[in-house]
Amino acid sequence: MRKILIANFKMNTTPSAFKSYAMTLATKSKNCKNEVIVCPPYTHLFMARDMLNGTNVAYGAQNISEEEKGEITGEISASMIKDLGANYVILGHSERRARYKENDKIINKKIKTALANGLKVVLCVGENLQCRTNKQGCTFVRNQLEEDLRGIYENELEGVIVAYEPVWCVGTGKNASNKDISKMVETIRKEISYMYSEKAGKSLNVVYGGAVSLANYKKIMDNEDLNGLLVGNACLDVDNFAIMCKENY
After folding, report:
1. Which domain holds residue 226?
2. Active site residues
3. Which stretches does DSSP call E strand in the chain?
4. 130, 201, 85, 249: CA torsion to nearest 10
5. CA dist list (Å): 210 to 177, 181, 184, 233, 234
6. How far apart (Å, rounded) are the C-alpha atoms in residues 94 and 211?
7. How confident is the model at residue 171 (pLDDT cuts 50, 70, 90)?
8. 249: pLDDT strictly greater than 80
9. Which whole number is the average pLDDT over 17-36?
């Protein structure tokens, strides 16, 4: 089964270091049939354009402004990202929600802006420890999807990948069990089916991102309910990430 592998560099590496990374990944994943996407910092995107165009590795950004343009010092617009040849953007990541107080209303606007500019969206959703402890995780994620995708048309869902990111295990070294993952993926698909159609729920691409490592990725990838992985720190080792990308083939 073809999978989607997304690398989220977060605020790591330098443009010069990424040049070597991109060259190595493009070479090591040359005959890979999985879909490979790298999302480095903004400063690396020109290097991604130069090194990855013409390869089977796509690239994107880790965030965009909800505005198209204007007097907003320090922000990056969707059109700027698209002009660099990027095709993807990660939105709603737990770190953005927590550290920068990005709520569902802001994320919804960013999704609309991204899609309007031809960017595909990796939408991160997931429950925190309190929700999990209170057995409210599924309800929490359903509410996130409802608010984040408000006003998005069914045909636009082709440009959306939902990443289940259990906040309660991010950065802890812990990992959700395959049972936990399958339950949440089922919840996500049912919510999309309710919001749109059964066809939309079945065809939606859902990936998992939560303490993915070389030690556990195979077990997670074997979960038939999933379409792939959103890899954080483990992607920084290009050799290890290349191994993940070539899994199943």
Report:
1. 4-245
2. 93, 165
3. 4-8, 35-39, 57-61, 88-91, 120-125, 160-164, 205-208, 228-231
4. 90
5. 11, 10, 13, 10, 11
6. 13
7. low
8. no
9. 95
- Predicted confidence band of residue 166 (pLDDT cuts 50, 70, 90): very high
CATH number assigned to the domain comprising residue 96: 3.20.20.70
Query: CA-based diameter of the chain, in Å?
Result: 48
What is the number of other CB atoms lying within 10 angstroms of the CB of residue 143? 14
Give the count of beta carbons closer than 10 Å to the beta carbon of residue 158. Answer: 12
pLDDT in tens, 54-109: 999 999 999 999 999 999 999 999 999 999 999 999 999 999 999 999 999 999 99
Output DSSP code: residue 16.
H
Q: Which residues contact 242 (CB under 8 A, 6 or more apart)?
A: 24, 25, 28, 29
* Token digits of residue 97: 């929600």
Count of domains in the chain?
Answer: 1
Angle between helices 238-245 and 15-28 (to 10 degrees): 30
The token duo for 106 is 């802001």
For the entire predicted model, the pTM comes to: 0.97
